[in-house]
Structures are given as structure tokens and as C-alpha cells.
Amino acid sequence: MTPLRLVVVDDHPVVRDGLRGMLGTQPDFDVVGEAAGGTEALAVVRATSPDVVLTDLRMPEPSGAALIRLIAPEVKVLVLTTHDTDSDVLPAIEAGAVGYLLKDAPREELFRAVRAAARGETVLAPSVAALLLSRVRPQRPLVAQLSAREREVLALIAEGRTNRDAAALLHISEATVKTHLLHIYAKLEVPDRASAVAAAYRRGILK
């Protein structure tokens, strides 16, 4: 199988070195170039024809959405940054980025995101997904919709507890915990645990 051709764009040399080393551990990845800013990135992309560009947003011009707009959709762009505010996320997604991760993402999550981005699939950090959902859905008071037990389960999940842990702490069965989680997902209109926790913090259900 031909390795995915990757370009890393970040204005911090240590970050670029770290990403190159990390990505280089995967046999299906080939880091063919790197750049410290937008102008250099454009030249590297033209010279190497990568499958995926991993880029930060705040760096020498053209940066952020401007850079993404110049290379997408011909090249898949995966944003890798520390910023998840409206002013960063929305322009990047609108410009054509297929993925948006934060730099504290586990390495396995990053590897999966790169492969997904190469296939044109959208990959979003939970906080980013929650932000985008808040832009397309009207806000509704959700605290009253969650039962006291559902809020207890959600709080334990937010602490990183497993279903088994939650069941033991609440003196209920694991199956009951799973049922509560399904109800929580439905009420918060989210697909999984991470999204439920992100939505709960954003809407004030969890403090």
C-alpha cells in the first residue's frame, strides 16, 4: 500500500519535529514536507502534492482559513491547534478543512484522524463538534429534561468512569447505566460519551 503523503505546517520547530517523529512511527504515513508559515506551506504543497496537510491556524500569513482556502479541497486539510473558539473553528471549517483536532489529542486519535481526513471524512474534537452543533441547533433548557439519576451517571462519565464503575458507585446494574446513557444521548442530541460530556459542560449541566 502506498503511504499517505503528509505535510506538517506549524511555526514552532519543536512541534514540527514532534509531529514528524510521531507520524513517522506509522508505516502508512510518509511526511514529505514541513513549513513554518503559510507562504512556505504553499510552496511545499505545490512541490510535494501531499494527501493531507496538518496545519496550525495562527502563524505567518497566509494563516488559518486563508491558507486552507488556497489548498482545499484538492488537498485534505486537518487542523491541529490549541484554539477552539468561534473565531478559529468556524472560518477553518467554512474554508474547507475536513478535520479539526486539538494538540492535546492522544496520538492514536491523531493517527485515526489523518487516515479519515485522507478519505475525506470529517473528524472533529468533541469541543469543536459541540460548538458547531450549537450554531445549527436552537438552544433549549436541558437540565430539567435530565433526571437526577441521568445527571449522576453523566457526572461519573465526565470523571472518566466506566459503565461498570458507575454501576458499582450508584448501586445499579451495568445495563441500567447503559440505558441511562442512551436516554442522555437522545436528550442532548449527541452520538457518544465524549460529545455528551462536552455538551453538558457547554450548557451548564456539569460545572
UniProtKB/TrEMBL annotation:
Gene3D superfamilies the UniProt entry points to: 3.40.50.2300
Keyword Ribonucleoprotein: no
Modified residues (4-aspartylphosphate): D56
CDD domains assigned: LuxR_C_like, REC_NarL-like
Response regulatory domain residues: 5-118
InterPro entries found in the cross-reference section: CheY-like_superfamily, NreC/VraR/RcsB-like_REC, Sig_transdc_resp-reg_C-effctor, Sig_transdc_resp-reg_receiver, Tscrpt_reg_LuxR_C, WalR-like
Occurrences of domain HTH luxR-type (ranges): 139-204
Classification via PROSITE patterns: HTH_LUXR_2, RESPONSE_REGULATORY
This protein's UniProt keywords: DNA-binding, Phosphoprotein, Transcription, Transcription regulation
PANTHER family tied to this protein: TRANSCRIPTIONAL REGULATORY PROTEIN NARL-RELATED, TWO-COMPONENT RESPONSE REGULATOR
Name of the protein described by the UniProt record: Two component transcriptional regulator, LuxR family
Lineage, highest ranks first: Bacteria, Bacillati, Actinomycetota, Actinomycetes, Pseudonocardiales
